[in-house]
């Protein structure tokens, strides 16, 4: 029985080590530097999403009214600048593209992005937005090094510009691999400005995936202040109890 117990523990550690090794061998993603603590960044990310993404992608777990409340926007600002589907202020963010049309254009309906940041990570989204390149062999005309053969065209190409791939020398019997991406045609934004735009959009999707994170940050400040005050009072109480012992 004891031997079997230790064998089970050893197997568990072996599986855990294998999982860690497999994760370490995966592609290394650049750090986005995005977060939910910068309200101005979240507002810019929301503008990008609703101007470039909501035509295909929904946020079915998010309401326009919640975005306004969390991002410090008025109802008028949201309805004038973010709502292009005719939805009411208290309704969910749903793309106006019919599912049938989406399947016809892309082969399948674009996914809802409410939980994309939790499913893949904010860094993954940031890297994905930086990794599109022109690929005439693909039906949509684009490919992506982070998510190869994605059926999505690049919605931000006019901002970043057009990247092309420099391929590695192909080995016999293997498909060629992308060595690096080069900016062939500049977009409306400089490379630095586009990096910030990708960071803003990734941060907005991080917020959408867990809106309560904003409240946790707000409450966290008060919790720290309470702990500091409690520690100070406990110190004074300790001094009062022990002053006559010495």
Commentary on this structure:
The chain contains ten helices and six strands, in the order H-H-E-H-H-E-H-H-H-E-E-H-E-E-H-H. The protein has helices at residues 2-24, 39-52, 64-71, 75-81, 99-106, 116-120, 122-129, 157-160, 191-209, 212-242; strands spanning 59-63, 92-93, 132-134, 142-144, 161-167, 178-186. Strands 1-2 form a two-stranded antiparallel ribbon. Strands 3-4 form a two-stranded antiparallel ribbon. Strand 3 and strand 4 form a beta hairpin. The termini are far apart.
| Helix/sheet category | mainly alpha
For the biggest sheet, the summary is:
2 strands, antiparallel
Overall shape: it is: extended
What string gives the helices and strands in order?
Answer: HHEHHEHHHEEHEEHH
CATH topology: Cytochrome Bc1 Complex, Chain D, domain 2
Q: What is the strand content?
A: 5-15%
Which homologous superfamily in CATH is the superfamily?
A: Cytochrome c-like domain
Q: Please, how many domains?
A: 1
Gyration radius, rounded: 25 Å
Number of strands: 6
């Amino acid at each position: 029985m004891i031997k079997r117990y230790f064998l089970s523990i050893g197997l568990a550690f072996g599986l855990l080590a294998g999982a860690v090794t497999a994760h370490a061998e995966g592609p290394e993603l650049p750090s986005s530097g995005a977060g939910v603590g910068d309200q101005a960044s979240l507002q810019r990310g929301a503008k990008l999403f609703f101007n470039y993404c909501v035509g295909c992608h929904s946020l079915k777990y998010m309401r326009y009214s919640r975005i306004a409340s969390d991002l410090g926007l008025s109802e008028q600002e949201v309805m004038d600048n973010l709502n292009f589907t005719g939805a009411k202020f208290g309704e969910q963010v749903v793309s106006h593209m019919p599912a049938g049309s989406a399947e016809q254009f892309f082969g399948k309906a674009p996914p809802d992005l409410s939980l994309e940041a939790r499913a893949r990570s904010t860094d993954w989204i940031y890297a994905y937005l930086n990794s599109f390149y022109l690929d005439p062999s693909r039906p949509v005309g684009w490919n992506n090094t982070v998510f190869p053969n994605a059926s999505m065209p690049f919605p931000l190409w006019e901002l970043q510009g057009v990247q092309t791939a420099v391929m590695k020398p192909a080995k016999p019997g293997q498909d060629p691999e992308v060595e690096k991406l080069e900016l062939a045609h500049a977009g409306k934004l400089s490379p630095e400005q586009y990096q910030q735009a990708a960071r803003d959009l990734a941060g907005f999707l991080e917020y959408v995936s867990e809106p309560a994170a904003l409240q946790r940050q707000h409450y966290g400040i008060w919790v720290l202040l309470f702990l500091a005050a409690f520690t100070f009072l406990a110190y004074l109480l300790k001094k009062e109890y022990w002053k006559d012992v010495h």
